């Protein structure tokens, strides 16, 4: 299933080209992964304690910086300078989000405590 | 070293494995947020998952420019750590700013990917630009840059920066203009999908249009609706990560992005529901624009009370329900409230806090502030539960809350908050309301609670007034 | 990533052969799909009402007959007779499970009713 | 027609789309089981998802032998419909039998796939037999055939078929033999993974070993532990579908199988927990083997009461809690119980049912029986909730329950049920217990509840005794 029809190329061309560059991608698997993760997200978030909605916002904010993995590849690989610079800015911005997002979430959560047993 | 990485990645598939484990980590991180007892474990899971993802990405044998990589990461730490020290009142702004950073990152990555592909020689394209991939790339860039400027605007409105108007800005045919702009961007995207590099010049057009669209989308929305908007922008940020994942065939981006997307969506739905408004109304309703129609005709009178008087009555109560609102956040009164709580509890008074889901300016706002002042979280009671107890409460003390205790929501069909569930402060035997004057709250409407028979106003800044109550309680009752 | 190392063939051989027969498979996507579905299963089943554990057992019994999709392909495609027979038995067995599983679940669920308002 | 299918499948990817939607359907089906109000919608979702999956599979242009396909499906309907008419008491057996069918199907498919690959000419193998695929194929066949014979044994034990021993069968070194057998099968599998078609003769060995292993795994387990085992076999059936999905690169098989696998796992964990036993103990403990050690020393006396006497006392009660157990299922007494419920409710008595999670012989057993007799499900109260009410209950009527009301679970450390949570029938003001004699229940131990001060036995078959109570209630109190 992987090789989807490319715009201006014939299927054979794009397939042989694919071997040189990147392997063909199984988009349907990716769609499955997306749909399943969305189901998980809806289920899990619906159960988050109302007490914790503010920390939840900063936690998901940190997680949304997952584009860091793409930024690392973009910055670190052998690209032309402009692209490396774009990658580095993205990497910087995502790292900032990760660091501040997790730290502030933890700072807030540390404050929640139960009634001490007397 | 590099051979070893090749072995790890190509034979052992270490990257894929790391991504799989990281996915599980993110799911657990969110799952553990279901209770304050496990929530910090959730953060740990999230940190580990993120670290694992980063290591997995760095294993890629193509990654060799360590100076750039480590430099950018180091700079990120350098800026990120201080950003986490902001005061808790500034958390909404920080979150918005952070979304802007995130949107920028995704947008830039998409741009870089596009030009990397465009300028590569035909026989060595770095990715196979099928219609699907191009579509995902366009969606990614659109969502990313839109989130960037939109979040910047939102952060500005929340921070109340001077040159960003707080009130909704509207002009004729606004929605037409916005939808038209978006339509043009989408058409450009379709053209790119069909004609690929032949119309590469359309790419910068899309970038500019999305940047503009982000701004235009936010200006008609009032400052106070920003929390809902931020949540929605969070959702967009997640979706743009998903789109990037489709472009790069990276499943970790897809799973983490989808978790994020659904989280933002659910939080904004919860907020809309608690305000009894629709998405559409929040995004296009220009809420908070009309103002002052509240000050109508007849003059009603309010009774006011001194802090000492209130202290005496509370001392004798057996159940006191405290309703905190945005005013408590503004006045930073939470530590004084904790002292009040301690004093009353020591005297055997049962003190509970009534938490409205949209009290304050972000979901869970009051919980965080009260937790900061070390009030145990089992004393924070959700609206539906506390409404059962309120008719038995001797005193209801409203601290800087307004809309969330406005009985108009129950019966006044014309009111903008009609139908929003509220805390029944008017059902307690006595109600004290602390605020500085008779200004309306976020919804800009009058509150008949203040004119009720059993309501007494305690005028002044929340921090000062609660401080006075604390003083007279600890002074008068020290021999107790 | 798709082409995994085959036992006795060289990578090139197996790749060219794959084009003739079946496309290479992205196993990691499949693993993701598996892990995500398991998470969903654990989340969803944990929330099933205790009242309904017996119907749940017969419902999942019906769902586990999903191998029917493989049985259809096995029976219907052009195979040698023994394989077609094996496929047909499998198809028969799965259909039985589907039919009886869903019917009995529905029969049980029909019996659950609320107190009628008086 | 065939060209159209090619277009649908290869250009529109209709099969993949159908599978994606079917996956969502199965998830929703299970999600809607969270409440009886939506559960039937869940079944509908499941049916539609399954139909969509089947259509998706049939779209494959290679599927042309419609006589075989439709014939087999028709035969499946022909057998499946009557199989769904079994009485509710036979549901566990039916489920076990159905698992056997499922295991057989998966096992045969794996076998067919293996020989299809083996006998295909080298240049046109129907699938690329990587180590991963071979591993999945072996796992699939192993789990499939093991589930087949294991479920058949379980069904036999539940149906109490004569030549299948009910009691656990044990012999020396049993666990060694079982593990050894499994070990050999796994080694054969590994050999196939490494040497592929050179050791193809090992495949039938694996088939035979798994068939044998399924039998040997079940015989040391007592008939009454079968429900837990069935759940576990359900889990295996799901996992084998997952393995088949890996072999065929079919994502629907993976998702549906994983949903199934986790469902079986969770149900067996719930059962084990409610019995306070471990998986290990269920699988290898040979529970129910030792018997009769209960009948020790001193003779205690029980008080018995007539149905009329019990009826009089219940009539005057304000709260009656009924605890149904396995005996009610055996006697098919649920309809009489419903009459009793109606009569008492009409007299203004508050009647509630206390449902223990493992009362009867399968999870939710009592709920289904009582629902069958049309008792509203909001009267069926879970153990933890009803235990709050029991001290206030005037009468607790135990109908054929034994272990689930045995106070020994609370304090007798030596008891096999020690630590299992129970329903506090002994805390009610008066307790009536209906059973035929003084036989022990499933756990084979005596029950001190029957000797309690406030307990009165109503000896006889549950259906008969409840019938008498009903008669004397409707006779004596008709003028009421
Ligand atoms: N939480 C969320 O997620 C969220 C999101 C979007 C919108 N909203 C909206 O925000 C509103 C929240 O309701 P709310 O009752 O918490 O707040 P509110 O209705 O905005 O009222 C706050 C009140 O506090 C008083 N106040 C301000 N500063 C004070 C100070 N320093 N000391 C004492 N009083 C002070 C103000 O009156 P004075 O000026 O007279 O003192 C004002 O009436 C709702 O309408 C909700 O829909 C919330
Ligand atoms: N539900 C599950 O999922 C599940 C799974 C595995 C194991 N189990 C086990 O099964 C047991 C269930 O407990 P339980 O209290 O429901 O049942 P039980 O402990 O097995 O006792 C049933 C009692 O009913 C009586 N009885 C049998 N036939 C009767 C009839 N026709 N009329 C009246 N009485 C009759 C029997 O005594 P007489 O012979 O004296 O009449 C027996 O003592 C637990 O030990 C549980 O761990 C349950």
Strand order of the biggest β-sheet of chain B: 3-2-1-4-5-6
State the end-to-end CA separation of chain A: 65 Å
> Globular, elongated, flat, extended or rod-shaped: what is the shape of chain B?
elongated
- Global mean pLDDT of chain A: 79
Task: Please identify the oligomeric state.
Answer: heterotetramer
Total strand segments of chain B? 6
Spans of chain B with pLDDT under 50 lasting ≥5 residues? 290-295
Helix content of chain B: 55-70%
Alpha carbon gap, first and last residue of chain B: 74 Å
The share of residues in extended strands of chain B comes to 5-15%
What do you see in this structure?
- The complex is a heterotetramer, with 2 copies of chain A (about 120 residues) and 2 copies of chain B (about 475 residues).
- Chain A is an all-alpha fold.
- Chain A is about 70% helix and about 0% strand.
- The longest helix of chain A has 30 residues, at about 80-110.
- The radius of gyration of chain A is 21 Å and the shape is flat.
- The model of chain A is unreliable at about 1-20 (pLDDT under 50).
- Chain B is of the alpha/beta class and about 475 residues long.
- Chain B contains 18 helices and 6 strands.
- The radius of gyration of chain B is 26 Å and the shape is elongated.
- The chains are: A mainly alpha (about 120), B alpha/beta (about 475).
- Chains in contact: A-B, A-C, A-D, B-C, C-D.
- Chains A and B meet through helix 1, helix 2, helix 3, helix 4 and helix 5 of A and helix 2, helix 3, helix 4, helix 5 and helix 6 of B.
- One NADP nicotinamide-adenine-dinucleotide phosphate binds near residues 224, 228, 359 and 365 of chain D.
């Amino acid at each position: 299933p992987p090789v989807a029809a490319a715009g201006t190329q014939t299927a054979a061309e794009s397939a042989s080209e694919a071997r040189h560059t990147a392997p063909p991608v199984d988009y349907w698997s990716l769609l499955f992964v997306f749909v399943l993760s969305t189901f998980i997200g809806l289920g899990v978030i619906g159960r988050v304690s109302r007490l914790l909605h503010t920390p939840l916002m900063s936690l998901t904010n940190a997680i949304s910086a997952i584009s860091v993995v793409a930024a690392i590849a973009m910055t670190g690989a052998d690209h032309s300078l402009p692209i490396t610079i774009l990658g580095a800015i993205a990497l910087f911005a995502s790292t900032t989000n990760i660091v501040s997002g997790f730290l502030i979430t933890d700072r807030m959560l540390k404050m929640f405590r139960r009634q001490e047993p007397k | 070293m590099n051979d070893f990485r090749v072995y790890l990645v190509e034979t052992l598939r270490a990257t894929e494995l790391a991504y799989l484990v990281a996915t599980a980590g993110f799911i657990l991180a969110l799952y553990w947020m279901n209770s304050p007892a496990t929530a910090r474990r959730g953060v740990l899971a999230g940190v580990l998952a993120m670290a694992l993802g980063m290591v997995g990405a760095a294993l890629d044998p193509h990654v060799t420019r360590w100076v750039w990589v480590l430099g950018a990461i180091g700079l990120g730490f350098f800026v990120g750590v201080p950003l986490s020290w902001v005061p808790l009142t500034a958390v909404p702004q920080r979150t918005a700013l952070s979304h802007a950073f995130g949107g920028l990152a995704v947008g830039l990555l998409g741009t870089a990917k596009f030009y990397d592909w465009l300028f590569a020689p035909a026989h060595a394209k770095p990715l196979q630009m099928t219609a699907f991939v191009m579509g995902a790339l366009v969606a990614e860039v659109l969502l990313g840059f839109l989130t960037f400027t939109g979040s910047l605007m939102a952060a500005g409105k929340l921070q109340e920066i001077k040159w960003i108007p707080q009130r909704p800005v509207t002009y004729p045919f606004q929605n037409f203009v916005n939808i038209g702009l978006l339509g043009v961007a989408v058409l450009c995207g379709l053209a790119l999908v069909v004609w690929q590099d032949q119309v590469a010049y359309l790419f910068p057009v899309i970038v500019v249009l999305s940047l503009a669209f982000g701004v235009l989308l936010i200006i008609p929305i009032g400052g106070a609706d920003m929390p809902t908007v931020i949540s929605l922008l969070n959702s967009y940020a997640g979706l743009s990560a998903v789109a990037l994942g489709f472009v790069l065939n990276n499943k970790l981006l897809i799973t983490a992005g989808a978790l994020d997307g659904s989280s933002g969506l659910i939080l904004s739905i919860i907020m809309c529901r608690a305000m009894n408004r629709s998405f559409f109304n929040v995004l296009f309703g220009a809420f908070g624009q009309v103002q002052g129609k509240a000050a109508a005709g007849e003059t009603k009178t309010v009774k006011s009370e001194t802090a000492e008087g209130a202290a005496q009555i509370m001392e004798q109560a057996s159940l006191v329900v405290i309703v905190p609102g945005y005013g408590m956040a503004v006045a930073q009164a939470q530590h004084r409230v904790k002292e009040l709580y301690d004093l009353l509890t020591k005297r055997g008074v049962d003190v509970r806090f009534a938490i409205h889901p949209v009290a304050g300016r972000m979901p869970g706002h009051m919980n965080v502030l009260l937790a900061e002042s070390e009030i145990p979280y089992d004393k924070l009671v959700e609206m539906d539960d506390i409404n059962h107890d309120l008719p038995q409460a001797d005193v209801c003390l409203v601290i800087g809350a307004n809309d969330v205790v406005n009985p108009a929501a129950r019966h006044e069909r014309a009111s903008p908050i009609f139908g929003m569930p509220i805390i029944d402060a008017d059902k307690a035997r006595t109600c004290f309301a602390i605020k500085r004057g008779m200004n309306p709250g976020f919804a800009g409407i009058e509150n008949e609670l203040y004119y009720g028979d059993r309501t007494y106003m305690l005028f002044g800044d929340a921090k000062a007034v609660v401080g006075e109550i604390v003083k007279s309680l600890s002074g008068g009752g020290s021999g107790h």
